UniProtKB/TrEMBL annotation:
Pfam families with a match to the protein in the record: 4HBT
Species: Lunatimonas lonarensis
InterPro entries tied to this protein: 4-hydroxybenzoyl-CoA_TE, HotDog_dom_sf, Thioestr_dom, YbgC/YbaW
Domain Thioesterase, chain residue ranges per copy: 1-84
Family as reported in the entry's similarity comment: Belongs to the 4-hydroxybenzoyl-CoA thioesterase family.
CDD domains: 4HBT (cd00586)
Transmembrane spans: none
Name the UniProt record assigns to this protein: 4-hydroxybenzoyl-CoA thioesterase family active site protein
GO molecular function: fatty acyl-CoA hydrolase activity
Taxonomic superkingdom: Bacteria
Keyword entries, A-Z: Hydrolase
């Protein structure tokens, strides 16, 4: 068929999310070592144009509001020609690993994000 399987976009969103956080200096692995995890609650995709196998994709990840007990990520996926082919959104929550209860985001994450929200 030559087209990217639609289910792969969830993995692309995860890569975009992890790399965006890494780019601001935040470590998912450190957060988990500190006892907090971020499971996905919602995953939405809008397919605008088919992606093709072996095509280089660019995933632009945005956080449009400061997180509370949840954090929402927005994704724009572009093909190698620069055409927007997919848009997505995921909603994640912060949970304590010990009891799986919701919790506030790590303070260092809020400090790293604050400059982007004035």
């Amino acid at each position: 068929m030559g087209y990217v399987y639609y289910g792969n976009y969830a993995m692309y969103y995860e890569v975009g999310r992890v790399e965006a956080m890494r780019n601001i200096g935040f470590s998912y692995s450190q957060m988990e070592e500190d006892g907090i995890m971020m499971p996905v609650l919602e995953n939405h995709s809008r397919f605008l144009w088919p992606g093709r196998y072996d095509e280089m994709l660019t995933i632009k990840t945005h956080i449009k509001e400061m997180p509370g007990m949840r954090i929402r990520f927005h994704y724009d996926v572009f093909n190698e020609a620069g055409k927007l082919i997919n848009q997505g959104e995921t909603l994640l929550t912060f949970l304590r690993k010990e009891d799986h209860k919701p919790c506030r985001p790590p303070k260092n994450l809020l400090e790293l994000l604050r400059p982007y929200f004035g």
